[in-house]
Specification:
CATH architecture of the largest domain: Alpha-Beta Barrel
CATH topology of the largest domain: TIM Barrel
CATH class of the largest domain: Alpha Beta
Distance between the termini: 22 Å
Structural class: alpha/beta
Bound molecules: zinc ion
Length: 385
């Protein structure tokens, strides 16, 4: 018999606001979410009273440099791998790792191996194949084969566009990568999505619009990130977001206060201008270096993003006076849970429902921090309840 846990009296956001619920977990899975589950006297059942504390699905980070990144200021500025503990401390139970700028001296294999390590430690982890560069570096020699054949690979990225560190792909080069990702996704039963790094050298979304108009590629093939990196890109994102997905980066705040749109502010502005909530996601970009260059191209600043930024921005939205009740708070939770799992076709993730993986984030009483994280039904290396 597998261990069972009954969590009583949680205030549950599934991410929809359900009110007080009991959650029954068997092994790695949630098997029931009901108003009241009476607890049989089984020896193998642990019963925990959550005393109305808020419970979210474990957060999903769709863009994190798990194997390190950076190096724009020379070898000494390469960043380290992101540790399992740092991710869990941020309330994140599922990650999608990416390579980043350095597809030259770093490899997709190292990202894959780090994802395997995180899985072994108990977390759920997938990756994108490729890097900033086009054509992208891969493991098997093609984007399609990587996605179709390697279980952990669900898409390609982050492909850089409109950035001085990108390879400035032509529309034909760009479409080739999109199509490879799409076909690999079809073969492998995956999202086959392209995670796009938006730089500041706009126009931000031109390549995507051209791919859609010229070849009939669908908007849901793209997940562009760093939409809040500066006001110009963000204004373009407000228009684009009515058609396609828009991902906001959390870990760059507050390092670039003069240019960046704070993620929690971006959330409200998106909604105010009519971007559907289903299109909005947030991710950390943690582990990546956040470089700033002067007008001559010299590196003047380099900082590193942290996983806990996702939870921080989520809570900054929830405590904002524009959030009137728990149902509105649930919309914010959706951007880091069920929206991400739907877009990336991770069906058992991002929701608190029977059949889903038991990934839970339990807040502390005053909702200022995290009391406990469950990853696939297990406590992520933390103190027990
Ligand atoms: Zn990026």
């Amino acid at each position: 018999m597998q261990p069972m846990t009954l969590l009583k009296n949680g205030t549950v956001f599934s991410p929809q606001y359900l009110g007080t619920r009991d959650i029954l977990i068997a092994g790695r899975k949630i098997i029931a979410v009901e108003q009241e589950i009476t607890s049989p006297h089984w020896d193998y059942l642990e019963v925990i009273d959550l005393e109305k504390q808020w419970v979210f699905p474990g957060l999903i980070d769709s863009h994190i440099h798990i194997a390190g990144a950076g190096g724009e200021g020379g070898p000494a500025t390469r960043t380290a791998e992101v540790s399992f503990d740092a991710i869990i401390e941020g309330g994140i139970t599922t990650v999608i790792g990416c390579l980043g700028t350095d597809g030259i001296t770093r490899t997709v294999e190292s990202v894959l191996m780090k994802a395997k390590a995180l899985r072994q430690q108990g977390m759920s982890a997938w990756i994108y194949t490729g890097s900033y560069q086009v054509p992208p570096p891969t493991i098997t020699g093609s984007v399609s084969r990587d996605i179709a054949l390697i279980e952990e690979v669900i898409g390609a990225g982050e492909i850089a566009i409109a950035d001085h560190r990108s390879t400035y792909p032509t529309i034909n080069e760009f479409i080739k990568v999109v199509q490879e990702a799409k076909v690999g996704g079809l073969m492998g039963g995956k999202a086959g999505i392209l995670n796009i790094h938006l730089g500041e050298n706009g126009p931000s979304f031109d390549l995507i619009y051209q791919a859609v108009e010229r070849e009939g590629i669908r908007f849901n093939q793209f997940l562009p990130t760093h939409c809040n990196r500066c006001r110009e890109v963000f204004e373009d994102s407000k228009i684009y977001g009515k058609k396609g997905y828009v991902d906001v980066t959390t870990s760059a705040y507050p390092y670039f206060p003069d240019s960046e749109v704070k993620p929690s502010v971006a959330f409200f502005e998106f909604l105010d201008c009519g971007v559907p909530i289903e299109h909005i996601t947030m991710s950390t970009d943690a582990g990546g270096s956040l470089p700033e260059f002067d007008k001559d191209g010299n590196l003047v600043k380099l900082v590193q993003g942290s996983p806990v930024s996702l939870f921080r921005e989520l809570m900054d939205i929830i405590v904002d006076k524009r959030i009137k009740d728990e149902h509105q708070a649930a919309m914010a939770v959706q951007t880091v849970t069920s929206n991400v799992s739907r877009i990336l076709k991770l069906e058992t993730k991002g929701r608190i429902a029977p059949g889903c993986d038991a990934d839970l984030l339990i807040l502390n009483k005053d909702r200022t921090g995290i009391r406990h994280v469950l990853c696939n039904g297990a406590s992520g290396g933390q103190k027990p309840f």
